[in-house]
Amino acid sequence: MRLRDSATLVPMASSTTAQTTATVHLVRHGEVHNPEKVLYGRLPGFGLSELGHRMAAGIADHFAARAEAGHPVHLLAASPLQRAQETVAPLAERLDMPVLTEERVLEAENAFEGLSRVKQQLRSPRWWPLLVNPLRPSWGEPYAQQVSRMLAAAKDLSELAVAEHGDGAEVVVISHQLPIWVTRLWAEDRPLWHDPRRRECSLTSITSLHIGPDGVESVSYAEPNKELLKDAIALPGA
């Protein structure tokens, strides 16, 4: 795996900081209650399902166990959307830590937001002009823009954690599938355009950016709630 110097989009390390190493864990939120299968995007009012709350509790267990094993979390942050805030809540309570609300790890903008049965809707010619460039993509926030804001957030949060807690600090950020996935694609020097069905970013999965003096040095992936995924419903707009 060849990792790209993160300065291509945004510098992850600064000559004015003492940062040497840090890890930013990008956690996708839990399952959302969405019986109408709406592509909810940034819409308000979409909180976790009962299973999603169990997933959030599992994430709290996972990071608490890591802390007991000598890998404590030093900083918690989350997207302002309800599903992300509800996912981080049990972890914040378990670790007795405050949560920073981070706008830059928000869900991607999407012109199809609010639609249900999206595949059927896209058969209508009214939507076809939005489908002309899947590489950008033409229906929403450019992939490169998502990566830039995610990396900027990771840079600032990791530097804050290192400044307060020293080398090797760990940060947990609750975010959303698409911004997390394209950030991983960028770090692994892969094209940002992709088939959404092939994303490796399951509900409450952890995509960890391991950061060194020159930026993102490696990426790792884990699914601590893997046993719960078989009961999850694949919902759009996650």
Automatic annotation (TrEMBL):
The lineage of its organism: Bacteria, Bacillati, Actinomycetota, Actinomycetes, Micrococcales. SMART domains: PGAM (SM00855). Gene3D superfamilies: Phosphoglycerate mutase-like. It comes from Nesterenkonia aethiopica. CDD domains: HP_PGM_like. This is Histidine phosphatase family protein. Signal peptide: none annotated. It holds the Pfam family His_Phos_1. InterPro entries: His_Pase_superF_clade-1 (IPR013078), His_PPase_superfam (IPR029033), PGM_Phosphatase (IPR050275).
